[in-house]
Amino acid sequence: MNKNIILCGVGGQGTVLASRLLATAAIGLGLPVLSAETIGMAQRGGSVISHIRIGDEARSPMIAQGTADLIIGFEPGEAVRQLDFLKTSGAVVVSSRPVMPVSALTGGAPYKPDAMLRYLEEYGCRLTVVDAVLAAKELGSDKTLNVVLLGAAAKSGELGFGEEDLERAVRERVPERYQELNLRALSWFT
To answer: What does the domain layout of the chain look like in residue ranges?
Structure first.
């Protein structure tokens, strides 16, 4: 199996943990993994992008434009920003919950998350939209969005491995006091 996966969001959404969970799951299956993160101004709500390359074909951790099999977008605008990386037959799993950029909050160009979601729908990729607001309400925490998105990606068949492989990764990587919540988050999406 060979997969190129981009995870993208903003600081504080758990993008880096999600990339580590994917890498741990793949390594547990005996698959080689290369990864790289770009975190920029993450602590100030800036973009966070992780490249995960799984399989024998990976020679570099960075994914070339037009070669990503999957984009997991923690925020609609960030997913749209990364579309140049998606291959023609690729898929996107995205959260419906927007995170307003600082520029929009301070009087800059307006941010229209509904327009971003419509753009993704019209883009022609296989698209899975996750209702992040409902997930947070039902799970009792908005800190589980990262794992909810991984569960949605696994259930959509786009990861190349299953929910049980991610469960093992959660048990290995997540502190014990948060494991039950994260395991519920992993199986939330139906």
So the answer is: 3-99+114-186
Q: Which residues does residue 10 pair with via DSSP β-bridges, in sequence order?
A: 47
Q: How is residue 69 annotated by DSSP?
A: E
Q: How far apart are CA 67 and CA 13, in angstroms?
A: 25
In 3-state terms the chain splits into helix, strand, coil percentages (rounded to 5) of 45, 25, 35
The average confidence (pLDDT) of the chain is 91
Query: With 50 as the cut, is the pLDDT of residue 42 above it?
Result: no
In the prediction, which pLDDT does 41 show?
Answer: 56
Could you give the count of Cα atoms lying within 13 Å of 84 in the half-sphere of its Cβ? 3
Positions of E strands within the chain = 3-10, 33-38, 47-54, 68-73, 86-95, 126-130
Q: Was domain 3-99+114-186 assigned CATH 3.90.1200.10?
A: no
